[in-house]
Amino acid sequence: MLFLVLSILSSFVILIIFKxxxxxDIPVIHPIIINYFIxxxxxxxxxxxxxxxxxxxxxxxxxxxxxxxxLFVFTFFLIGLSxxxxxxxxxxxxxxxxxxxxxxFSIIIDDKDHFSSTKLILLFMAMVAVFLTVYKKxxxxxxxxxxxxxxxxxxxxxxLADSIVKFSQTFYIKNETDSSAFSFLTFGFSAxxxxxxxxxxxxxxxxxxxxxxxxxxxxxxxxxxxxxFLINALNALELNNSIVIALNNTGxxxxxxxxxxxxxxxxxxxxxxxxxxxxxxxxxxLMVFL
Length: 290
What we know:
By secondary structure, this protein is mostly helical. The chain is built from twelve helices and no strands. 46% of the residues are buried.
């Protein structure tokens, strides 16, 4: 259970840091670039890797790591574009709802996971809770098919990335060292694409500003933790993995909304408050009865 709590905390910290970088007017892409190098490097040292050991990593690990690492960078730009074109509300709902992909994917590929009517009800509660919690009423309608497709693409791609992580955990990653090594590979591919991104930055030297470096390092450590601890939670907990994924996502949403309400003093609608209540109920049921 500790791994699950740490995974939720890591994802929560990422959101808090992004909120703080907005306050200090730090271009979000700069700490994002730094974070991938930090996350990959931390995975390298945490796994006790050497160049010789890296060469011994099974080739089967490379394709999922390359796929997920590349998607991480691409979806970052997609989130930015979707936020500007389709709005924050729809973008947030799409990204948060994507967790249904790895949950049901787990039921399909994991022999230790199974389908039940109770689980279906709880998963449905979790999805509704996430939707209500992050929902914001839109003032403008979406007129363009392209704009409508942006959140849909985000929903599919993030869900696909998480499903590939679940696939890797099921068939390849069996212990904590494996988790670190896989994180090293995944974020290493993200770091590679970040090198490409650096060349397109106008103010390249601003990446080296202390506040940018600090935020990038903190995000990188939290980013590594979110993947590392989640994979270990999937391996360690006796619960079906689909339930662990639901717990993780619901916990992140709940913690984020509570922070928004009490730390950043953001206003919540009645639907948002209903979503928080349903999140608490779902999280409690998952923790106590499953």
